[in-house]
Amino acid sequence: ERDDNCRSSGTFAAGLSALKMNIPVFVLNPEIFKSKPLGNSELINRGGIKVSSLTELLEKVSFLKEAVSCESSNVAEEDTKYENDKMKRKKTKKQKSKELQYEIQF
After folding, report:
1. What are residue 28's DSSP bridge partners?
2. What is the pTM of this model?
3. Are 30 and 37 in contact (CB under 8 A)?
4. Residue 57's closest CA among 35, 74, 32, 37?
């Protein structure tokens, strides 16, 4: 959106930046206003999450929190699995090194 001097709205620019960074942007439904804000429609068209009430906002935030929590758990599990595999590989290398040393001694 632009003001009377054709400057871009800071809020609109921040919303666009957040969307580019894949950060959820909650946008009030332009239909609830007498004069529909064009910026709101544009942000929704670009991927903003349309909300029409506080209740709807809270429901969507709660859903996102759960999704992020599940994703975080999956990432933590993958990190743990990776670290365990890494330790096994180190252990295997140490065992091979010891076996080689043993063979060299005899």
Report:
1. 51
2. 0.55
3. yes
4. 32
Helix (H, G, I), strand (E, B) or coil at 60: helix
Signed CA dihedral, 68, 70, 74, 76: sign only: positive
> Can you tell me the distance from the alpha carbon of 4 to that of 25, in angstroms, rounded to the nearest whole number?
25
**Residues counted in the chain:** 106
Task: Show Cβ contacts of residue 39 under 8 Å, excluding neighbours closer than 6 positions.
Answer: 1, 9, 11, 12, 15
Q: How far apart are alpha carbons 47 and 25 in whole angstroms? A: 8
Integer Rg of the chain from CA: 26
**Tens-digit pLDDT profile for residues 54-79:** 899 888 888 877 777 666 565 556 66
Q: Which residue has the tokens 């709101």?
A: 40
